[in-house]
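To: structure desk
From: M.T.
Subject: fold request, one chain
Message: Could you run this one when you get a chance? Sequence is below, nothing fancy, just the single chain.
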Amino acid sequence: MQITRGKIAKAQKVVFYGPEGIGKSTFAAQFPDPVFIDTEGSTSNMDVARLDKPTSWTMLLQQIQFVKANKPCKTLVIDTIDWAERMAIEHICASNQKKSIEDFGYGQGYIKLEEELGRFLNLLSDLIDVCINVVLTAHAQIRKFEQPDEMGAYDRYELKLGKKTSARTSSLVKEWADMVLFANYKTLSVSADDRGTKFKGQGGKRVIYTTHHPAWDAKNRFGLPEQIDLDFNQIAFIFQQTNTEPVQTKEEVAPPIEETTPPPEPVQASTPTTENVIEDLSDVPKPLANLMQTNGVTKEEIQAVVSKRGYYPEATLFSNYDPDFVKGVLIGAWDQVFEQIKESRK
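Reply: Done. Structure tokens follow.
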């Protein structure tokens, strides 16, 4: 057993949320060496590094595992967590042959969602262990709130993680984060007449709230002022002392190899079954095609596994697969499907 004292420099877990158009993606792009996983396509007009837009929950998890293994950045930005939650719901419903999260009954669907999101946050915590910051952006929603020891209810801003799931998933995300920052427009109410009976709004300055308030959720562990300008320089000092290990980027490669040394073998995420062949996947649903390309899986391998499990004859075209079968089995249980493919390769 060992006792340590003092602050520990580590990567940070940040949740940054606010109304649409406030500049969440632009703000997140200023974190150290960021790479985006853009779940909603909001960075199309931004000059940022990004992974392919995930078309399934399984693909999103694989992208996080890729970042963990290859360390291509100092900050991973998931933009946004509420759109990622939608993908998780679709995955849970497809895997259990349900049309809606409500179909589970007695709140069981929301329990499954909480468990799935918990595993997702644990995977993101693994990035912190390898000195990669994680930033989750989110939209804000206004919800009526009533405290047990107070009279009456009032409106407050919260993470937009679904009205019925916010009591579970929203609190889970807030507890996971080191910082929860709320961005909003600061509007002043100014008298519009001499008697002070009419008022109008003026201003619209963008600010960040860093501490809890009855009207919003926020927190930080760095002694930030309660309100700061929407400017990354206000919090930049936090990240100047967090990443204690160098992260390999595309520019920071291994030392040059002498001419007498043969070039190393290229490293691939998985071993494809064919060489120098780009397979036509136009007849494969996009989410499944993305998983196949990422893992080097061919249509013949999918058809062989499907036939072996007794779902369809091996010669059945992908266009004849039932969409629910593709979503619920091939995509929803991709890890098991891919394991069977790897076994068949042996």
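Reply (cont.): The domain at 13-189+199-239 is CATH 3.40.50.300 (Rossmann fold). Let me know if you need anything else for the meeting.
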